[in-house]
Amino acid sequence: MDHSHEPDDIAKRLEKGPSVNYLRDWIYGGIDGAVTTFAIMAGVVGAELSAGIVLVLGVANLFADGFSMAASNYAGTKSEHDDFERIKNIELRHIRNHPEGEKEEIRQIYKLKGYDGEELEAMVELITTKEDIWIEVMLSEEYGLTEIQRSPMMAAIATFIAFGICGAVPLIPFIFGLENSSVIASIMVGFVFLGIGAIKSRWSMQSWWASAIETFTIGMFAAGIAYGIGLALKALV
User: Fold this and answer.
1) 63, 193 in Cβ contact below 8 A?
2) Of 223, 217, 76, which is closest to residue 159 (Cα–Cα)?
3) Which of 54, 69, 145, 159 ranks highest by number of CB atoms within 10 Å?
4) What is the mean pLDDT of each run of 10 residues along the chain (237 residues)?
5) Element at 104 (helix H, strand E)
6) DSSP codes joined into one string, 185-212
7) pTM of the entire structure?
């Protein structure tokens, strides 16, 4: 995304610092919510069970699976925080106890980037004069980690809300008792998948239609599996 390169505008932008993006959590929750609820609906319809069962299982899934996903995302994101702090403390201890060895690591890191001679030594000296910059470089270059961390709570909330909104879509025709509810739900969920795919293309190199078709295919394939299982179980009963 283009932005101003005027000195004052650059200063204001850098002063705010980098922003944290929860797109992954929204996409994750939205796709899973639509897929799992629609899969439940497809399985029940495939087994030719009543619309009431669709609602009972669907609503239960919205809350139980939605909370489970949010809690799992919270725990996973928090684990990333904990691991970051653990590695940061290790590097801090190494820098304070073995500064020359850590300087050599910086030297070799930037040598691999093409720096050499006086330029390389100046780079090493510049980085290692400030402990916080030194640690930041080591975390980034040696472990691929960054100081910018996503909030576990915000990640969980984003996942739960997206799961609930998208997962509720397949249930709407059944709530209103519409005829051909399963067909209407299939069409509505198809548009949800297409919409999610089109939206996420904004943050990727894919075209909106390619991203939309990809997401649509994944979601409908999952629903097709559930529908097939429902038919198979019906034949066994």
Assistant:
1) no
2) 76
3) 159
4) 72 74 88 86 79 90 93 95 95 95 96 94 95 94 89 95 94 91 90 90 85 88 76 70
5) helix 99-112
6) HHHHHHHHHHHHHHHHGGGSSS-HHHHH
7) 0.81
